[in-house]
């Protein structure tokens, strides 16, 4: 069987769409916003509201620091263009005098005020980190897998940069294990036995088990791994994004491993011997993924997150009363 070769988002199309958006008159966006907000009742309102409140946990009014808040009219690209365009896509719809606070990149430390961010810690009081769908061209990559779980090789696979201590330790522990095809791809001056070449998503889909290991924040491969017919294995996630990793349940959506990966061999053996259990988890993973595969609904949720943000920071109401 051949795999369907649609394993990466088209970056050229992504940037082209965003350039065209910048040419659209603001009046059209403002009219479109009202239309989109009025479609809420055509969806499951309780579900939509629950996701908005998950991303923006605050329900009481808050203030934005003057020295950190940026007005939409002064929002400019300063590197990290994928992040810039992902937020700009939604800012187009709101008044150019509204202000936002945000942070791009993999940094996950919390600020003393609400700010938009790609990822946040799952544990503790994380309410000031407002999750937004940022860098989606890299992270929100769902795939179509034509191989069933039982047709795949009975091994676990992982490729990636292993700069963090926990990743480096994992690679050195399992790079030569007979049940694994694991290796690091980070360039270095001194070759190491655990250095292995790039492996495409299509090639990784030939394995029953895909390791999803957090780096600076979430595991980049988690979204496509959970949309595949392979079984996702990982330690309990410590960070979350728009994908709501904090709602994932061990044994339901993925196979949980110990933080030191000492039970990896045991878990591989178990699910090789119990494919029906693996397939049940894979089906639940697909169900979780499916909720992010409705572009119009995703658009509405993103707009409602910003609307709530502007309301709680006192900007939406002030504008409405002008």
From TrEMBL:
InterPro entries: CAP10, O-Glucosyltr/Glycosyltrsf_90. The keyword Amino-acid biosynthesis does not apply. Keywords: Transferase. The keyword Transferase applies. Residues 84-307 form the Glycosyl transferase CAP10 domain. It comes from the Bacteria. This is Lipopolysaccharide A protein. It comes from Photobacterium arenosum.
């Amino acid at each position: 069987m051949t795999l369907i070769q649609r394993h990466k988002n088209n970056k050229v199309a992504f940037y082209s769409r965003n350039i065209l958006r910048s040419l659209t008159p603001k009046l059209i966006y403002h009219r479109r916003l009202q239309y989109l907000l009025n479609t809420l009742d055509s969806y499951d309102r309780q579900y939509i509201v629950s996701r908005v409140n998950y991303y923006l946990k605050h329900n009481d009014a808050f203030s934005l620091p003057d020295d950190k808040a940026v007005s939409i009219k002064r929002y400019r690209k300063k590197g990290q263009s994928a992040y810039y365009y992902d937020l700009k896509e939604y800012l187009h719809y709101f008044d150019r005098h509204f202000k936002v606070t945000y942070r791009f990149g993999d940094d996950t430390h919390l600020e003393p005020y609400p700010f938009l961010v790609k990822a946040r810690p799952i544990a503790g009081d994380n309410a000031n980190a407002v999750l937004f769908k940022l860098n989606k061209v890299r992270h929100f990559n769902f795939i179509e897998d034509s191989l069933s779980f039982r047709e795949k090789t009975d091994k676990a696979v992982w490729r990636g940069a292993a700069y963090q201590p926990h990743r480096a330790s994992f690679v050195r522990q399992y790079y030569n294990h007979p049940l694994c095809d694991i290796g690091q791809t980070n360039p270095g001056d001194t070759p190491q036995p655990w250095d292995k070449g790039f492996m495409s998503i299509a090639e990784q889909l030939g394995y029953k088990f895909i390791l999803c290991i957090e780096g600076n924040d979430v595991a980049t491969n988690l979204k496509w791994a959970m949309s595949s017919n392979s079984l996702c294995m990982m330690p309990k996630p410590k960070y979350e994004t728009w994908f709501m990793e904090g709602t994932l349940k061990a044994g339901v959506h993925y196979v949980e491993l110990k933080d030191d990966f000492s039970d990896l061999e045991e878990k591989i053996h178990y699910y090789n011997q119990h494919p029906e259990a693996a397939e049940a988890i894979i089906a639940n993973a697909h169900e979780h993924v499916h909720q992010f595969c409705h572009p119009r609904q995703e658009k509405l949720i993103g707009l409602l997150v910003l609307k709530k943000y502007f309301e709680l920071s006192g900007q939406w109401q002030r504008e409405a009363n002008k």
